[in-house]
Write a structure and sequence with these properties.
alpha/beta; Carbamate kinase; 18% strand; two-stranded antiparallel ribbon
C-alpha cells in the first residue's frame, strides 16, 4: 500500500466497526469519547470526498453467540444482537451530526420511527449526496455475523474496500498480547488466510470478498489519524487481497 501524494486510494469505502470498539475500556455500553473520536476520523475522511458506509456490531451491548452458549435460542439471541447494533448506529449518527456531517442510519430490521429501511439504491444515493450511511440490524437474518454483513453490503454498494477496524494494528501470526514472538503480517492472500485459519473475518465474509475482488484492510482505528492514513494508502495495518 504505497502512499499516493495526498490523493485518496479509494473513492467509496465500507468501514466495519465492532461494538466492542465503541465500548472503549468499559465492560458494557458505549464510551461516548470513543464515539466522538471515531466520528472525527470519519468526518475527516468524508471531507476528502470519500464516500463512506459503515457496518457496526453490537457486542458491547449484547452478543447472540454468548446468549446461545448460555441456553438462549440462537435465533432469538441473534435478533437481540441485531437490535443492539441499532443503538450503536444511532450513537454514531448523533456523533457525526454533532460535527456537522450528514448521516443516515439504515437497518435491515424495519423500525420506521428511528431508522430508514435498508434499500440498496437509496443507500447508494445517500452516499452520492454526501451522507455517511450507517448500516445496522446485521443482514436481518440470524446465524450471520456482522462481518458477513459488512462483506455483503460492500459488494452490494460497490465499495472498493472493506476497512476492518480493530484494537490491534493488523494481523499477526499469533495473539500479540499473549505471544511476544508474534509477528505482524503486512499482506496476505485470501486463500492464505482461509488455509491457515488466520482470524481476519469469518470464512463466509472472506469468501464473499474473495469471489468479488474486494480487498480488506485490517487496522487500528483507535489510533488518531489511522483511518486517513489507510485511505491515503500508507503502509499500516494488513492488506488482504487486492493489489499492492
Amino acid at each position: 500500500m504505497a502512499a499516493r501524494d495526498g490523493r485518496p486510494r479509494w473513492g467509496r469505502v465500507l468501514l466495519k466497526l465492532s461494538g466492542e470498539a465503541l465500548g472503549g475500556d468499559q465492560d458494557y455500553g458505549i464510551d461516548f469519547s470513543v464515539v466522538r473520536n471515531i466520528s472525527k476520523q470519519i468526518k475527516r475522511v468524508h471531507e476528502m470526498n470519500v464516500q463512506v458506509a459503515l457496518v457496526v456490531g453490537g457486542g458491547n451491548i449484547f452478543r447472540g453467540m454468548a446468549a446461545a452458549e448460555g441456553g438462549f435460542d440462537r435465533a432469538t439471541g441473534d435478533y437481540m444482537g441485531m437490535l443492539a447494533t441499532v443503538i450503536n448506529a444511532l450513537a454514531l449518527q448523533e456523533g457525526l451530526e454533532q460535527m456537522g456531517t450528514q448521516a443516515r442510519t439504515m437497518t435491515a430490521i424495519q423500525m420506521h420511527q428511528v431508522a430508514e429501511p435498508y434499500i440498496r439504491r437509496r443507500a447508494i444515493r445517500h452516499m452520492e449526496k454526501g451522507r455517511v450511511v450507517i448500516l445496522a440490524g446485521g443482514s436481518g437474518n440470524p446465524y450471520f455475523t456482522t462481518d458477513t454483513t459488512a462483506a455483503l453490503r460492500a459488494v452490494e454498494l460497490e465499495a472498493e474496500v472493506v476497512l476492518k477496524a480493530t484494537k490491534v494494528d493488523g494481523v499477526y501470526t499469533a495473539d500479540p498480547l499473549r505471544d511476544p514472538e508474534a509477528t505482524k503480517l503486512n499482506r496476505l492472500d485470501y486463500m492464505e488466510v482461509l488455509n491457515r485459519g488466520i482470524e481476519v473475518m469469518d470464512n463466509t465474509a472472506l469468501t464473499l470478498c474473495m469471489d468479488n475482488g474486494v480487498p480488506i484492510v485490517v487496522f487500528d482505528l483507535l489510533k488518531e489519524g489511522n483511518m486517513e492514513r489507510v485511505i491515503l494508502g500508507e503502509e499500516i495495518g494488513t492488506l488482504v487481497g487486492g493489489r499492492a
